[in-house]
Amino acid sequence: MKMHDGLSEFIERQLRNRCGLSGADYQVLAHLSEAPEGQLRSFELGRLLRWEKSRLSQHLGRMQNRGLVSRERCLADQRGAVVAITPRGSDLIKDAAPQHVADVRDVLIDHLTATEMAMLVTIGDKVGERLAALEHKHAAGLPPRPKPAKSAPGSKPSTAMVTDTP
Amino acid sequence: MKMHDGLSEFIERQLRNRCGLSGADYQVLAHLSEAPEGQLRSFELGRLLRWEKSRLSQHLGRMQNRGLVSRERCLADQRGAVVAITPRGSDLIKDAAPQHVADVRDVLIDHLTATEMAMLVTIGDKVGERLAALEHKHAAGLPPRPKPAKSAPGSKPSTAMVTDTP
DNA sequence: CCCATTTGGTTAACGTGTGAACCAGAACGT
DNA sequence: ACGTTCTGGTTCACACGTTAACCAAATGGG
User: How far is the CA of A17 from the C1' of D22 (A)?
Assistant: First the structure.
């Protein structure tokens, strides 16, 4: 945990100081610049980033204001939006990427042996599997489809912080 | 990075759902409960957590409102404050701690071999050293003590996001 | 002793993340 | 064709973190 905190603080500071990009900005631009035409459906981007949709919506709004991306309604699906990287955004990430990569090497990769790197990867994989398994179990534990009965909701939503799962 | 995100999301969710505590709350209570008399000077706590002082101040305010900690002025140093864990806070963390530990084992430790654990530790140490070295280098690169000349500040603070270090 | 500096802490403004409520368009079952 | 449900997105209220400004008490050098 401490390692991650230190690592990401350093990386993000470099990114912000040199290019005015947050880590979030960087990820968005990275995905967009790798996509065909430099554009993606909003929900695709959300899936790739594993972000809450509200977070994505708000962050894209801010990035749009800064001229890094553009948004317009999708023709095929009238409710959806396609997000595209702008020339400005493209320039920025083309500038940021190599430095970013260099930073990561400089602070992490270059100082690990091949064995350590490999081990790190397998650890990550193991944890990923375990988390997926737990998520699965959770999903299975809940009612398949609660089918919100049209009448008699019974209890108020209860904004209380400590709630027993009934 | 993905590993850390998944890990901390899972851990924090458990903590929040079961006890109504955020990770931050947990750390504060953990440190306080380990301290003699269950109390600490604010700045000690800040040093232990490596938190910005404003963050600490605000978080303690919220925790105080929830009745998890209490604050009063320090007798020895009239500007300082001592933070103490309340009975309620104490109960909460006594309840949370074992489950928290179990979660960490369940999702990480139990699935790693001794070799992997050891490797993970050495990796963390290496990164820590590297980061410390870089920080040191940075500090050295800056003027030892800028000695803010009483007159002629020269340039406006410049709220611009992209700034070249002059 | 006095003034400058440092230290401990709070506050305000802002950017950012989360969950819930909400809305419109699409998909589906009958 | 129709209501119902699902999906993609936005918006709101709130919690959280950071920076900068600020204040009062302590410290320290002449």
Answer: 26
